[in-house]
Amino acid sequence: MVERKDGKIALEEHFYLPSYEAYGADGEALDGAAKAPNYLPDFFASVQKGLTDIKLRLEEMDRGGIERMALSLTQPGIQGIPDRKMAIDTAKRMNDELALMVEAHPKQFMGFAAVPLQDVRAACDEFDRCISNLGFKGVMINGYSNIGDMNTAQYLDEAPVWDFWARVDALGVPVYLHPRPPLMNQRRAYEGYEVLCDSPWGFGAETSLHTLRLILSGLFDRFPRIQVILGHMGEGLPFLLPRVENRLRHMSEKVRGKQQKPVTAYLRENFYITTAGHFRTQALINTLLEVGSDRVLYSVDYPYETVKEQNDWFDNLPISETDRRKISRENALKLLRLADAPSAAVSDKRP
Ligand code: ZN
């Protein structure tokens, strides 16, 4: 009998390399990640260790029955590097380093590419290289890209980025839209409550709005095959999107967006939703009722969350074993086009 915990595939799992700083972002760009002042020292130390310690990561995977992890550079990643050339160079460097990690542990790790959207043509080339040459399974984009300075942003629905989406459509791999905090000069609402700016609230607010921009831009009508992955149980959208739809129907065609279908249809057709960093049964049930179990994926958000805490919740969920297997493994196999290797006793097979 297969144990509940075995064979999981996790998709929002982060790494960080000391060489990232040497090649890229300044201290400001790293807010919320490696230089987060709001975290308690013990928590921050364990996150730092988890981001960089491969042996510890493999042990955690074994203990939690995680067969494979898709690894991605922690936020804001390349999106937080305002200098174009530095963004291009750092993306290449980080992807090369990630490829080495995957090469050393090909059965346990997969790569999600980092792309320098500060220069869309360079991002397309790097994306191509990562999928075609390095064998990565998708791309992770940390929200808007700073261009020139930290107060300037390019969102993913904006005209220059559509060439990149055409490449996504052609390559047929998913885009993970990961949060980052709001733009530096747009944080008035957080004044006096700066602790809310990143993962407690700002991440979800920023990413859900960014997702609405994508839907209302008509992107998925132009490229209906594109699949975007959202973490943190869909950043609130399974709960909130029906109200957006309800209100938009009273708006004139001129202002309600370029989308051709009701907005909830896109959530069911162009998005996958992961459990990363959000272990609440009520929220999962709501998500399942909105999008169905074929579009939900297991993830941890390691090392910002622990495998144990995620699994204490996930392994005991009151859902069918069929849905548990879909969410923890089978949906990811299909989406990332992975071979279905035997799932049990992963550690025994390691070289
Ligand atoms: Zn994350």
> So, CATH architecture?
Alpha-Beta Barrel
Low-confidence runs (pLDDT<50, min 5 residues)?
Answer: 24-34, 344-351
The kinds of small molecule bound in this structure are: zinc ion
* CATH topology category name: TIM Barrel
- Euclidean distance between termini CA atoms: 25 Å
Order of strands in the sheet with the most strands? 1-2-3-4-7-8-9-10
Estimate percent helicity: 40-55%
* Largest β-sheet summary: 8 strands, parallel
* Form type: globular
CATH class: Alpha Beta
Number of helices: 13
H/E topology pattern: EHHHEHEHEEEHEHHEHHEHEHH
Question: What can you see in these coordinates?
Answer:
- The protein is of the alpha/beta class.
- The chain has a single domain, classed as TIM Barrel (Alpha-Beta Barrel).
- It has 13 helices and 10 strands.
- An 8-stranded parallel beta sheet has the order 1-2-3-4-7-8-9-10. A two-stranded antiparallel sheet has the order 5-6.
- β2 (66-73), α4 (84-104) and β3 form a beta-alpha-beta unit.
- The longest helix has 21 residues, at 84-104.
- Zinc ion binds next to β1.
